[in-house]
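Hi there. Long-time user, first ticket. I'm pasting a complex I've been working with (about 1330 residues overall). I'd like to know whether the download I got is complete or cut off, because the file seemed smaller than I expected. Thanks.
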Amino acid sequence: MGIIKKIFTFNDNTLKDEFILTRPEPLAKYDVRTESSGAEKIYVFGNIEENLAYIKKRFTYPINNDVVIREIAMKGRRRAFVIFIDGMVTTSSVNEAVIKSMQELPYFADDEIYENEKEITEKYISHSQASANNDFDVICEEINFGSCAVFVDGFSTAFILDVRGWGTRQIGKPENEQSIYGPQEAFAEMLRNNTALIRKIIKTEKLIGESIKIGRVSRTRGILLYISDIANPELIKDVKYRLNSISMDYVIAIEEVAMMMEEKPNMLTSQQLLTERPDRAARALTEGRCVFLLNGSPRALVLPTNAFELTSSASDDYLRLPYANMTRFVRLAALFFSVLLPAIYIAATLFHQEIIPTFLLYSIAAARENVPFPTIVELFLMDISFEMIREAGIRMPGPIGSTLGIVGGLILGQAAVSAQIVSPIMIIVIAITGIGSFATADYSLSWTYRILRIAFILLAAFLGFYGIAIGIFVYSVFLGAQRSAGADFLSPMPKANSRSMTSSVFQNAIFKREKRPSFLKPSSIYEEPKISRGWKKK
Amino acid sequence: MISKKEFTSILITVIVVKMLLSYPRELVLISGQAAWIQIIYASLIAAALTLAASKVYSHKCSVIELARMLGGKGLETAVGILVFLILLANFSTVARVFPETVKIVLLQDFSADVIMMIFAVTAAVGAYMGIRSISKVNYMFLPIAGIVFTVFLLLLIPYYKIDNIFPILGEGADKIFISGFNSVSLFSDIILLNIFIPHGKNLSEAKTVGIRAIIISAFTAFLITAAYCLAYVYPVSRDYILPVYQMSRMIHISSFFSRFESFFQFVWSILIFLYASIYIYAMCDVLQRTFNLKYMKPLILPVTILGITTAGIPSAVTDAIGLEKYINLIEYPIVFLLPIVLGLLTRNKGGIKNETD
Amino acid sequence: MKPIKAAFFAAGLIAAALSSGCMGKEPNDLAYVVALGFDKSDKPDNYNMTIQFARPTNISGSGSESGGSGQGIVENITVEAPNIYAGINLADHIVSKKLSLSHSKLIVFSEEVAKDGVGGIMETLARNEETRPDIYLAVALGSAQEYLFKVKPVVEVNPARYYQLIYEQHYTSGIPKNTAGDFFYNQKSGARDNVLPLAGTVELNEEESGSNGEEEGKESSGEGNNPEKTHNQLQQSSSQNNEKFEYRLRDYIAGQVAVNQNNESETMGMAYFLGDKEAGITGSLETELYNMLIGYFEESYLTLMCDKKDAVTVLVLANKNPEYDIDRKNKRVTITMYFESDLYSLPTDYLAESGIEGFERAAREEITAASEKFINDVIRPSGSDILGLRSKFKRCFINNAEYEKHKDEIMRYDINVKVKFRVRRTGLTIKEAGE
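Hi, the file is complete. Here it is re-exported in full:
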């Protein structure tokens, strides 16, 4: 009966339970951004009660469950408290180095504190990374980043001790920039570990790491690395200016920083290089570039870069000359096939049948006889299916993902041919195109190729080879107008005496790479003498 | 700023493009199978004139600025408009003939007007990106075009017959050396050197650029002409509107690889897009300098429309090719003599000297 | 503002793309012409044009279970029209797909059409971009239509490939090479007069299958309108072939070669032209001599005399192009040909190694005599400059005006032929004297 009643009557009261999002009341009085914007700075009070009250209010204690405030009774009944965020600190350090030490410290009279505050802190704080600060903004920032802050009654400064110890990923192998030869380390999320990885390769005091914090609220730490006697000072100045002028509340990953720094975010080609290999970042530094690392991101941002560098991979530097050039040639072919093969197929079959060998043309014509769709529709159908399979393969965990790719590709393709929805040659074209896009060194570049491919297909479908020529020309001039941190994007980057373009595309012998890339305008041009192999001298 | 090599490659592109269209036929119409001698002769004259111009030029500025130095605003405007008309004429002939080529070779079922319109839009986009971008792309692409061209000439080797260049003097020495003097007009695009000097690093570099460009493009023109004379016997070689395309149709490697002309045409299309972009940019640059305009980019669209409209004046391709001949005859004296005359007259005047930028 | 700008731009692009009017033609919307045949029509200035186009589904086998078996791989249609494109236009009304000439391989003229002149058709081929300059040309003995109808390739599935293989052979010399580009080029420039291969058809003759058809050859070979006189002359001369050139080999023309075969079409011999009109036909041996003299001879098996008793077959290679030495003063042209050979087929008792020099001398004399006979019997009477003498004469002049004044005098010069013939190898065996 109740059910029938529910079906046939309309009960307005149910609306009360429905949640609809509306704009809230004007912002609460206490706004961290207003507090930290520097409009009104709050400094450490001399009185511990006031400090405690302020800190509790600021961290919304005890509602904010992660925050731990531990009050300590020092000798002579002087009160102190330590505040930290649970899960971000090494508890043993807090217990031993902070709480225990505090409890065993001698008693200081008030006048001793006022006269010798600095001396007392220098003598008695037995922690390697400790600083004193009286600015609540700075103190809170450090607490948020895993330090602990110690407030002592009578002291008008607080002590910030670096006791960070959260769970992180270990340094492992590069996942997306694999190489048979060369180092097998990759960046992880910890900033200090990442800078250490680079520093142990470039062991020079001229390697400068400037600290830059990005994000008005998150204050995410970053380090800008450069070698001071190689990098162009104007380049460093420009990069620092860009980084410091990024204004957003929260910065989560370095990719966001990269997008904020790009000059033309709508361009298909990325104007920066993101690498997960410390050796690649180190090599970039030795050429005169700068590298930016952000805490929490396992990639380094390398500036500036150019179009040729995006197509080369880190492993090219560790292969012998013939192998490296062969790999580059294969990658060039992959670039050509992934971008242009479908377009050339469309252009040749729709407009320029004379270019196709006669027997192949008969095969294509016969194969297409029972296919109901035009060639362009066939191509898009299979291309989109392939892209969906690829995306699904990324989303699916582990073994299912790879199996899905194989099963989806094979069975879908085979079924489509058997059902005469597509012609067999289309499957081959799509397969080679897909494989070509996987063979690119840079992940962002593979996306560039995918988008370019669609543009070229449309051009070829309407205008044949003329359309492809137009596409190549227009894209090239757009690339030519692009810049990456002040350097021309289409600059050649030869590392030899000649400035030829072939040195950009193909590798030179390692003993011939005498000059640094000229487009970087480095302070120091030569990195090798004329004869770099001393054993060759007679 | 355009580097020396980029500048040289720009000039090579604009000069060589003429040879990819109907110019070899023009040479053959004059001297018959001795066209290859005629081109050597014309190249020497062009090189000598360019050398003379480079000796007398002493200011790092274009002919328009030289005119202003010499005769004030009035002369500057007159020279500017004259240079603009020369550039417009060159651009219009290519803008007329090239889309017709595309229609014949690549897109037989299309209307030539649509092809011309798309050509204009593409060239305008290129010009909009600026001379630095065009010069970089040109510098990158020219070696590729050179390799394709070399392969093309090598693939034609089985079709060369040495008998085809006999009798050696063709239509006669008078035709080669007297009537053939006009074939110096092949190099009339060298006017761009005088227009783009302010974009270069310094004057001495620009002088080297001019001579190098003449030598390299002369060599290329010689190769094309010699190949055409060797591949086709004389009376037949008068008939083909597009000699280089016609030669590309001959290539037959095996039953599998033949009919490569669509592929070659695709490579040449890019070269001609570069030519058109350079020309549109140059025309806008000339107008900006002549009338002291602040911005150049707003001129691109109207100049492109003007160029295409002018290109549409001849009603048939044959008229366009005939008109091109007369345009060449009129413009080459101006192109070569103007910088020499203005250079001589402004030699001792003040202004921007050989400055390193 | 930006979204509106982007919308306008996109609309403009789409409008431009759609206004282009055409998105090309699918490959299966076209019918690909493989060969064209021209016969004389009843109406003056018209031809009966036979259009042979491919059936891709049968060729590639996707249309039938049995695969491409050579059956039904082409379709033929004959229309009456004054030139190629008028005929294509007419045929487009009948054939459901648009006919495309971009992959055509062969154009065949009947002898009547060839004698009337083929310049008009060549002009069409030169002007349009669809047809390739490397289309092969041939003259059919009889009707071009019949030749095309009877082409039934046995060892290929692709008819285009059949034509390519037959007309592009470089390992035989009984078929002259000529393509449409060369024909137009030579005819327009006067560089030399053209030759075209002869194409003919045979009738299956069951009575003679298995018999030695060497002396009698074929009965009616479906040669239709060919003048009996020409063929009887050839038949007579072939029985005296040892005076001409190769020993014990008949001077075949197309349609006479094979005794029994499934493919009733053949190609052998040549038709030579004066300008754009046919001036006569010759057999395979003369064609071979022509190829040697002009420099198109690459390699072939020649059967030469061996003490006038037994046949010796050698693989002859031309190791250099023939040299033409023109002596204006003495009004003489000397043609020097260079050959090298491998001994391939010898009689068992023939000790070639001991008499190689004698054999070489005999071979030189034989080829020289045959070449001079060919020049005197074929080139002189017709006045056809198939050797390109006028073209070679150009080297003697300084400019075109002078050349034009004197270019015909070379046709009256004496022509001497010299042959350099060496036996380089004896195959895998070598016999010593006394074995």
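A couple of notes from our side: Residues 62-70, 205-233 of chain C have pLDDT under 50 and may be disordered. The first strand of chain C starts at residue 30 and ends at 40.
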